[in-house]
Design goal:
Blueprint (H helix, E strand, L loop, with lengths): L2 H13 L4 E4 L6 H15 L6 E4 L6 H10 L3 E3 H4 L8 E5 L14 E7 L11 E4 L5 H12 L5 H14 L9 H11 L4 H8 L7 H11 L1 E3 L2 E6 L5 H12 L6 E8 L2 E8 L6 H8 L5 E4 L3 E7 L10 H15 L2
Parallel strand pairs: 1-2, 1-4, 2-3, 4-5, 5-6, 8-9
Antiparallel strand pairs: 7-8, 9-10, 10-12, 11-12
Length: 328
């Protein structure tokens, strides 16, 4: 038995005899959904049943479209809460415990599979933590290295998640991502993949684009945009990519006022500015944030907003500019 099979079989044996829940980060995106789905189907091949779960909402068209196309069932925390027990096992996928964007469910987080940097170290009984462009890459590696052919829907979902999280292979791509693209492409449904990639914007999204354009402020090479109304996580991320596309911008910070607080998304194409470190440092003491060198996200919870004072927009801008100035 090779090392990879032995490694995955450790996860299989850990799961046997327990209720298994595969939890994504809150407000799951296509990569999170694909990774959780791919892992569920892989565990099923070893007679391990599991449920996919999340907190928050499925609030982006690309994510809800995925669930419909592949008939994936994901249960919300509210739906699961009455049935969860302390001895249930949770596998964190595309997320890490205590990372700020994952609700602490009832149950024991025994395993973690994630491609993000680690900011708060947690001891798991099983873990696969490696920085790649998408978490879907880590799940696809299991199939390839175990010699298992993914089903057509699994391959298509993983490939879509991989393309979405790397912004069509233009962001944070690693050699492993390219290798897994080639592997998954053999088995995917290209027509279904094309359908997923079409018509992923809703009419209401245009309002957010308008607000982002109208509110943009440029400080040196850093662009800030404030959306004065609630936006889904995925849309805020898309808007930060949109602002970064400006030739004058090398670091983009976009934030939206929501019921749960202020949601932020950061993008960087400046090799001297690590987006994850930037937002982690800027929000220290008032919120949580982290991510990759090129992309990151964070949240200032509603109960912490008073720390920003009477002018929260200006306060957020100043927090980021202070960290950027200190890094020069």
């Amino acid at each position: 038995m090779d090392d990879t099979m032995s490694d995955f079989m450790n996860l299989v044996e850990l799961c046997r005899g327990h209720n298994i829940y595969i939890q994504t980060h809150n407000f799951p995106d296509p990569d999170a959904i694909a990774s959780a789905y791919g892992l569920r189907e892989l565990l099923l091949a070893y007679d391990i049943s599991s449920e996919l779960c999340y907190d928050g909402r499925i609030d982006k068209l690309s994510a809800s479209k995925m669930l419909d196309v592949f008939r994936i069932q994901m249960l919300s925390y509210e739906e699961l809460r009455p049935d969860l027990r302390d001895d249930d096992y949770i596998i964190c996928v595309d997320s890490q415990k205590n990372s700020g964007n994952v609700t602490d469910f009832t149950g024991d987080e025994v395993a973690c599979i994630d491609h993000h940097p680690t900011f708060t170290k947690v001891e798991y009984q099983y873990q696969k933590l490696r920085i790649t462009g998408a978490c879907a890459t880590l799940i696809a590696e299991y199939y390839e290295e175990l010699g298992l052919k993914p089903g057509k829907d699994v391959a298509t979902a993983l490939l879509y998640g991989l393309k979405m999280d790397t912004l069509q292979f233009t962001r944070g791509v690693t050699r492993e991502d390219i290798k897994m693209f080639e592997f998954l492409f053999r088995y995917c449904d290209q027509e279904k993949l094309s359908d997923l990639e079409r018509n992923n914007m809703e009419f209401d999204d245009l309002k957010a684009y308008g607000a982002a354009i109208e509110s943009i402020e440029l400080y040196d090479k850093t662009g800030f945009s404030c959306i004065p109304f609630s936006c889904p996580d995925a849309l805020i991320a898309i808007l930060s990519d949109f602002i970064l596309a400006l030739i004058e911008v090398e670091v983009a910070v976009v934030f939206s006022y929501r019921e749960d607080g202020i949601k932020l998304s950061v993008r960087s194409e400046d090799p001297d500015v690590h987006a994850g470190n930037l937002i982690h440092s800027a929000l220290e003491g008032i919120g949580n944030g982290g991510g990759h060198a090129a992309m990151a996200g964070g949240l200032i919870k509603k109960e912490q907003q008073e720390k920003l004072g009477r002018y929260p927009k200006d306060a957020i801008r100043d927090l980021f500019l202070k960290v950027l100035d200190e890094g020069k």
